[in-house]
Amino acid sequence: MTYTRFALMILTSTIVMFVLMYLNTYAWEHLFYSETRAYMAVLMGAVMAFVMMGFMAAMYSSRAVNIAIFAGSVIVFALSLWMVRSQATVGGASYMRAMIPHHSIAVMTSERAGIEDARVRKLADGIIGAQQKEIAEMRALIADVSEGNVVSEIYEDPAPRVGTVEDALNNTLLAGLDPAPLTADQAGEALPEGETCAFRRTAAADPILIAAADGSAAVAKLNGVIVPLDPAEGETSFASDGFGMAVAPIEDADWRADSELTFTLEPGPTASYRGTWSCAG
């Protein structure tokens, strides 16, 4: 066996290992290039080169080249390990591209695990909802940050204060509020009649906004309450008492997402999510 063949074998194995790390993601739309996974694949390739050469050194005639492969494997391993743990080259957009497949794994395992205990099932369902929300938010942020839009300040809840349990139960931290998934059954009579359109953070998730196809009304769920929304300024915009949701098509629409929903709460947070906008009778 030649050294060229050995190098091609290690290179091919490294590429294959990088691809295999994506096989436990929940959906194709969650596939994003990850620098961290690339460094991990290189790290594993270096280990493979060291181990294989240890077993196969007798098959190669040059002792100097064999030593160079051992040394090179150690150096590549150390460098790639440092890159993984330091995250030295990972910026905001790159960080989110790495986190989306990571979140997707949590969705897949939480949904498909054979869970019998009701407490664990509730925990898993909460993880699914949180991860799907964050995936949609990160897709919107990737697009925004990649265009050079960097925000230095965001809404923050007031500082904690001393009070009673009743005060705590009556207190709402606005920064934690977010439109929740809802079904047609949950929306009930608040759901617009006739043909409706819905925004979903991911294709398989329940919508967070259901609207009449003609834009005359909409409904969303906020803090456990079904909230009817009226048309607002904008083509697909709805609002009620400082709570607003607007959907707009995105220029770079692809198989992952075709629309972006912006959620606003006054006073309070503003967040955007990339997902799908579809209509049905």
From TrEMBL:
Entry-linked Gene3D superfamilies: 1.20.1260.10
Regions that span the bilayer: 6-26, 38-58, 64-84
* Key word Membrane present: yes
- Where does the DUF305 domain start and stop, copy by copy? 94-153
Q: Which UniProt keywords apply?
A: Membrane, Transmembrane, Transmembrane helix
Name the record gives this protein: DUF305 domain-containing protein
Q: Origin organism of this chain?
A: Salipiger mucosus DSM 16094
